[in-house]
């Protein structure tokens, strides 16, 4: 008899888990209050970051903290009430960002992210979605020589982890991007084996369509309650119906804390907001690659709806109203580089990177329940890591030997 599973969350992480389980002959249903790929997995910058061997640490140098403190920097903003509310996980984040724990985290995190492009390729090939992925790398551009040198200093380690890159002079950047004003930059890095997606939401939807072709089911409904039955199976209350399943997987991204609170868990998950707006490029002008203005923390990516500008981090509450000063400040600076014309949307999109203090996701069986599995907390790289997570989680659930050691992603580590 086929095993059954229900995945809550139809973002890149949940859809990838569902796809892998369905491939393993499970009968899988995905539940989401929206259609697949319409939340965080829609609005991100669309980078499949094979190069991201170093997760984002909390700023620890006094100089760096003083830079961020006035709350006017382009890359990081905060709302003081949210900083107070999330003080405990942020303090843990600060501690995990010290050199010794951070170096270990990098090694553990690398074991997963090294598989990111290969695992996406398996899924986009099966889904006939190659056309959404540009496999020609993206450009990280630096205004400051010191920040460029810091990356170059890490090059031996990056190479050891299979990252391919080329250091660029401003002249070389101009050859790749003739319409960009490169006079602002001292140089850059072309991440050669990282990829860019022209519509992250569409890629998630393409994977979801392929999942349905394999026999998977997707239901648009909100999950309001979860109840473990005496035989270890699960009873799920949604706004539309009552469902039962043997295996339940929580992949609700930044909302995972909220849903797991129903079962008595209190993981130190915190949201890190980002905004985006699309802009039309001036006539005849184009960007060939996604561009990261590294010292200002925003991304310009050529996408289906126009040039998508995504902002850096804002520490705030998940339901806080829009505050678009950071986005407006980024646009002003970005327009000095590239002729962005009018915005496509009236209101900016915003979403939240689901962050955990040690910068790694949880991919594990839940500690206090049977047949409950957790996959969330992929922070800045959840779009990148969905398929690699899906494969790992499906192997754990089906009892196969996992393709990488899952120990660094344990739920009991906090
Ligand atoms: C501005 C920005 C830029 C980013 N850029 C990149 C990038 O370039 N590359 C990269 O790899 N990552 C990037 N990220 C991070 C990435 O987008 C996220 O890590 C990733 O999308 C998380 O995927 P997910 O599937 O865990 O969550 P989501 O995509 O948010 O999916 C979770 C789903 O759960 C559903 N849900 C929640 N609660 C319930 C409920 N009670 N009932 C039913 N459904 C529910 C939601 O509707 C949602 O669809 C960026 C993020 C932001 C904000």
UniProtKB/TrEMBL annotation:
Source organism, top-level taxon: Bacteria
Q: Tell me the keywords, alphabetical order.
A: Oxidoreductase
Pfam families, per this entry? DAO
Indicate what this protein is called per its UniProt record: FAD-binding oxidoreductase
FAD dependent oxidoreductase domain location is: 5-396
InterPro entries in the record, alphabetically?
Answer: FAD-dep_OxRdtase, FAD/NAD-bd_sf
């Amino acid at each position: 008899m086929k095993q059954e599973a229900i995945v809550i969350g139809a973002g890149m992480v949940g859809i990838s888990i569902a796809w892998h389980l369905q491939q393993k002959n499970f009968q899988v249903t995905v539940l989401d209050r929206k259609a697949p790929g319409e939340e965080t997995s829609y609005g991100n910058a669309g980078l499949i970051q094979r190069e991201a061997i170093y997760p984002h640490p909390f700023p620890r140098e006094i100089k760096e903290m003083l830079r961020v403190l006035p709350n006017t920097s382009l890359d990081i903003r905060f709302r003081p009430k949210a900083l107070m509310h999330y003080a405990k996980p942020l303090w843990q984040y600060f501690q995990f960002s010290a050199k010794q724990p951070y170096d270990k985290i990098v090694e553990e995190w690398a074991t997963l992210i090294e598989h990111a492009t290969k695992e996406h390729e398996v899924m986009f090939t099966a889904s006939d979605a190659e056309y959404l992925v540009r496999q020609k790398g993206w450009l990280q551009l630096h205004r400051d020589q010191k920040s460029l040198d810091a990356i170059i200093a890490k090059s031996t380690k990056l190479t050891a982890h299979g990252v391919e890159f080329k250091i660029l002079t401003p002249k070389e950047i101009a050859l790749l991007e003739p319409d960009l004003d490169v006079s602002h930059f001292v140089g850059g890095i072309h991440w050669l084996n990282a990829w860019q997606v022209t519509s992250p939401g569409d890629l998630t939807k393409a994977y979801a369509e392929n999942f349905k072709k394999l026999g998977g089911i997707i239901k648009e409904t909100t999950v309001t309650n979860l109840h473990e039955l005496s035989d270890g199976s699960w009873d799920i209350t949604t706004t539309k119906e009552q469902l039962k399943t043997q295996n339940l997987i929580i992949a609700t991204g930044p909302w995972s804390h909220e849903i797991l609170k129903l079962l008595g868990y209190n993981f130190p998950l915190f949201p890190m907001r980002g905004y985006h707006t699309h802009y039309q490029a001036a006539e005849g002008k184009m960007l060939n690659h996604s561009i990261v203005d590294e010292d200002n923390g925003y991304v310009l990516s050529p996408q289906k709806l126009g040039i998508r500008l995504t902002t850096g981090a804002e520490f705030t509450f998940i339901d806080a109203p829009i505050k678009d000063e950071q986005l407006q400040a980024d646009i002003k600076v970005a327009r000095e580089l590239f002729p962005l014309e009018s915005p496509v949307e009236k209101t900016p999109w915003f979403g939240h990177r689901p962050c955990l203090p040690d910068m790694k996701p949880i991919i594990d069986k839940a500690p206090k329940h049977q047949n409950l599995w957790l996959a969330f907390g992929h922070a800045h790289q959840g779009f990148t890591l969905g398929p690699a997570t899906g494969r790992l989680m499906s192997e754990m659930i089906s009892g196969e030997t996992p393709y990488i050691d899952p120990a660094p992603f344990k739920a009991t580590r906090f």
